[in-house]
Design goal:
With about 210 residues, the chain is an alpha+beta fold. Helices cover about 20% and strands about 40% of the residues. It contains five helices and 13 strands. Belongs to the bacterial ribosomal protein bL25 family. CTC subfamily.
Length: about 210
């Protein structure tokens, strides 16, 4: 496997030691799997970020711990929302011969004709769940919207024959739709204000004065 990330064991699991790891520019993590015991580790934060960018959300890579390499994928990442820093990572060792579940991001392609008529393109499902061998997990699932007019939609059932892996979502789940344009109803006050004012005939006004 081309991409390798170096990890080091964590022996001190106290809160102070964990905070020091983060202070030193590392990310606390855990390595686990169906055939191994859980092992606390830590990785260098910059190298971890490079790995994520290189392999993607569901990418496989090698985690090197004390000279032992484990084929893993990132199962979960915790991020501090205020500092925008990695807090903790879960590395899951995969069995390359066993199917696993994964969430694959959806990418819309093309331009829906319905939007040119005032329709609103609504992307409802951003990830699709699949089950397949680790090496077969797609990086993304492309959904072409170029055939959608107002009122049309694409559901999971429409994608099954277009994706090479097994989709575990329900058939009726909607991925994307083109909604009709929103019509704002005019209130009574607005209607009254839009009416033209009554024009008084000048001749009639003058005749009333003479009388």
């Amino acid at each position: 496997m081309a991409t390798t990330l170096q990890a080091n064991p964590r022996t001190d699991l106290t809160g102070s030691a964990t905070r020091q790891i983060r202070k030193d520019g590392h990310v606390p993590a855990i390595l686990y799997g169906n055939k191994i015991e859980s092992k606390p580790v830590y990785v260098e934060s910059v190298e971890f970020l490079k790995t994520v960018r290189e392999v993607g959300k569901n990418g496989l890579f090698s985690l090197n711990v004390d000279g032992s390499k484990h084929q893993v994928m990132i199962h979960d990442v915790q991020i501090d929302p205020l500092k925008n820093e990695y807090v903790h990572v879960d590395f899951f060792e995969v069995d390359m011969k066993s199917e696993i579940d994964a969430d694959v991001p959806v990418r819309l392609t093309g331009e829906a004709p319905g939007t040119k008529e005032g329709g609103v393109l609504s992307h409802l499902l951003y990830d699709i769940s699949v089950k397949c061998l680790p090496n077969d997990i797609p990086e993304e699932i492309k959904v072409d919207v170029s055939g959608l007019n107002i009122g049309d939609s694409i559901q999971i059932t429409d994608l099954r024959d277009k994706v090479s892996v097994d989709i575990t979502n329900e058939d009726e789940e909607t991925v994307v739709t083109v909604q009709p344009p929103t019509v704002v109803e005019e209130t009574d006050e607005e209607a009254d204000s839009n009416e033209e004012p009554e024009v008084i005939n000048q001749d009639d006004s003058d005749s009333e004065k003479e009388e």
